[in-house]
Write a structure and sequence with these properties.
mainly alpha; 10 helices; about 75% helix
């Protein structure tokens, strides 16, 4: 009857299909799984409480939301726009490529500068939009949304493909620990070394995509383009 311990998975699947509250579904699945595994209700609560305490730092991102709102209210986007106006020859595509390079470099040194709400939305996207407006005077709404999407994608590319280039990142330690438990001699250093070429390849393809975007905008707004 060991299979009964998998009932938690069934509860999560059914809950998600019915679009029930995610946190409630997960908590119910955890409690039920613990009870059918022979753990008392009090012990289940102790395990859940200890897990919350051990991972409480995850909720710290809530503290950044008011800070970002205040920063935007007091002119963070304006300052980012003004910075772009002082940089000659910087297009939207080049700005996107530059940010992804910075993002990957920061990941390599485990420097926390990433975040859609903390960094991309209030800083990177306004700089990309300002670069387009500076070069073409005016960009239509469709292309503004395209640039927003690519700014978000630059963050995702940099985060996903470069997160394991730092030898002490959680992903690297998880991979190394899992492989070692399976009998493979894999060190965190070797995992990080294997991740570096992947990050560079991702940067290359992103640069090509960003260059293509620049050419697309240049053709579309050829008459209004500034030299």
């Amino acid at each position: 009857m060991e299979w009964i311990k998998l009932i938690g998975i069934a509860i999560i699947v059914v809950g998600f299909l019915l679009k029930l509250d995610t946190i409630a579904v997960v908590l119910i699945a955890a409690v039920v799984t613990g009870l059918v595994s022979g753990i008392s209700f009090v012990e289940v609560l102790e395990i859940l409480g200890q897990a919350f305490i051990d991972n409480r730092l995850v909720t710290l991102f809530f503290l950044t939301l008011p800070m970002i709102g205040l920063s935007e209210h007091f002119g963070l986007k304006v300052q980012a726009t003004n910075l772009i106006k002082n940089l000659k020859g910087l297009t939207s595509g080049r700005m996107l490529t530059l940010y992804q390079f910075i993002r990957e470099l920061a990941a390599f040194f485990s420097i926390r500068v990433q975040g859609q709400t903390q960094f991309v939305r209030p800083i990177v996207d306004p700089m990309v939009q300002a670069a387009a407006k500076l070069k073409y005077d005016e960009v239509d709404e469709e292309d503004k949304e395209l640039l927003k999407a690519q700014a978000a994608a630059s963050e995702n590319y940099g985060n996903f493909f470069a997160q394991n280039t730092f030898i002490a990142s959680s992903g690297v330690l998880l991979i190394a620990g899992t492989m070692e438990s399976l009998g493979y001699d894999v060190s965190p250093v070797s995992v990080a070394q294997a991740s570096i070429p992947i990050a560079l390849i991702a940067l290359f393809f992103a640069a090509v995509q960003n260059q293509w975007t620049d050419r697309k905008l240049s053709r579309k707004y050829k008459k209004g383009a500034k030299k």
